[in-house]
Design a protein that fits this description.
binds adenosine monophosphate; alpha/beta; Rossmann fold
Length: 473
């Protein structure tokens, strides 16, 4: 099926074909017709499925079907996203797909000056893309009027709730025309009971749409675990990047501090690297991302929140330098690679402290991730696991976000059993590898199970990036 049959205008079709898209993706096929009919939609789709065009194309169509008289430009569509990067991406997509239309849009998010945003809104826009915190700043300054919004899109709604934006969303909903007088579109990768409760409040007899999760079907991402001692992860990462000549690698750490430190260490190893996370200025984040996309920067080290929704074309390698506390974040992380039908590789460097996190991820995936021990980087079987330290004062991780991030409770004690690699290895699937994997003893790590009771190594300043730091206030 082609785009032509969906009922989109010639100008929109032209913009789509200029992007080189000749076939709608499954989410676009399912979402565009009901949105064009004015229905509310609740769609289960992750980043990478083409969901942005799935709501943007019909949204543009509906806006031009009913153009406002000259001189009047109330905000007619509002797209809320959890992060600045996603807002920027969605805003760019709207500009691209709407380039041949008399439609104006702008993006507002925190971390940058508010006055240029105010100026753009004052001149009149049809579509506003916003993160909740900064939008409420504008509301506070009376620089936006949301009372004419005809279409509301909540993009990555699950992430917005994870990040504690529910109160902001409620405040924003109260400023819109009532539910029956606007079209509501909710996109979410997962459907928790919180999302369902939000959907009940927000949506009016919605059409339910779901497309296969990227990681369950059409598997294009090769996943592998390399067991390695925590203290040798950086060395192994540099070795893999250098020896295999990877040119573009996205690396995930759990904390902002860890991201900074790793980027600095990689730079010292002669590899160009930069970190992005919520404590970096917006300018630094935009610059790092732009350099990474063009290939001027080889390694981007990111925290989960900063990387959420990033759309980077031709990203062959994603490395989990540290496993996430929340198993769903693993799926989001590896979804950065293997996009738009390309092949991708997701590599996880897993130390003995992280066994429980790995087990949680495998339970979510309903499959085991092949484990390959790399020659020269075999984990020391005497090292006992230690609790993963995250808090400001070296607290053990308990919950990533006290608002609604449920996954935290699953990940408190990856290491609380005090078992070594060997003792806690549960499956017969570990390979040994120099270049190619070769099967061996069937344990995550061969060797004896003596323990040395090593001292704690985690830094007390390691702090998970939470919503608070990303609130755009
Ligand atoms: P999204 O899920 O919206 O982040 O989109 C993921 C990627 O797919 C983006 O790079 C889009 O430009 C691309 N894309 C969107 N629609 C199509 C399509 N119909 N054909 C090919 N690529 C597409």
């Amino acid at each position: 099926m082609s785009f032509d049959t969906l009922g989109l205008s010639a100008e929109i079709l032209r913009a789509v074909s200029e992007q080189g898209y000749n076939k709608p993706t499954p989410i676009q096929l399912k979402a565009i017709p009901p949105i064009l009919k004015g229905k509310d939609v609740m769609a289960g789709a992750q980043t990478g499925t083409g969901k942005t065009a799935g709501f943007t194309l019909p949204m543009l169509q509906r806006l031009i079907n009913n153009l406002q008289p000259k001189g009047q430009r109330p905000i007619r569509a509002l797209v809320l996203t959890p992060t600045r990067e996603l807002a920027a991406q969605v805003g760019d997509s709207i500009a691209i797909y709407g380039q041949h239309l008399p439609i104006r849009s702008t993006i507002v998010f925190g971390g940058v000056k508010i006055n240029p945003q105010i100026e753009k809104i004052r001149r009149g826009i049809d579509i506003l893309v916003a993160t909740p915190g900064r939008l409420l700043d504008h509301v506070g300054q009376r620089t936006v009027d949301l009372s004419h919004v005809e279409i509301l899109v909540l993009d990555e709604a699950d992430r917005m709730l994870d990040m504690g934006f529910i109160h902001d969303i409620r405040k924003i909903l109260a400023l819109l025309p009532e539910k029956g007088r606007r079209q509501n579109l909710l996109f979410s990768a997962t459907f928790s009971s919180e999302i369902k409760a939000l959907a009940d409040r927000l949506l009016n007899r919605p059409e339910l749409i779901e497309v296969a999760r990227r990681n369950s079907t059409a598997e294009k991402i090769d996943q592998v675990v390399h067991p390695v001692d925590k203290s040798r992860k950086r060395e192994l990462l540099s070795h893999m990047i250098g020896s295999q000549n990877w040119s573009k690698v996205l690396v995930f750490t759990r904390t902002k501090h860890g991201a900074n430190r790793l980027a600095q260490q990689l730079e010292k190893d002669g590899l160009s690297a930069a970190a992005i996370h919520g404590n970096k200025s917006q300018g630094a984040r935009t610059r790092a991302l732009a350099n990474f996309k063009t290939g001027d920067l080889r390694i981007l080290v990111a925290t989960d929140i900063a990387a959420r929704g990033l759309d980077i074309e031709q990203l062959p390698h994603v490395v989990n330098f540290e496993l996430p506390h929340v198993p769903e974040d693993y799926v989001h992380r590896i979804g950065r690679t293997g996009r738009a039908g390309r092949e991708g590789e997701a590599i996880s460097l897993v130390c003995v402290d992280e066994h429980k996190l790995l087990a949680d991820i495998e339970r979510l995936l309903k499959r085991e991730i092949p484990s390959v021990v790399l020659e020269g980087y075999e984990p020391d079987p005497r090292i006992k696991p230690e609790p993963i330290q995250n808090g400001r004062n070296g607290r053990q991780h308990s919950k990533v976000n006290n608002q609604s991030r449920k996954g935290g409770k699953n990940s408190t004690s990856a290491s609380s059993t005090g078992k070594t690699w060997q003792e806690s290895a549960s499956s017969n699937r570990t390979h040994h590898n120099s270049n190619k994997p070769k099967r061996n003893s069937g344990r995550r790590n061969p060797g004896n199970s003596q323990t040395t009771g090593q001292s704690r190594r985690s830094r007390p300043t390691n702090k998970p990036e939470t919503a608070a730091l990303f609130n755009d206030a």
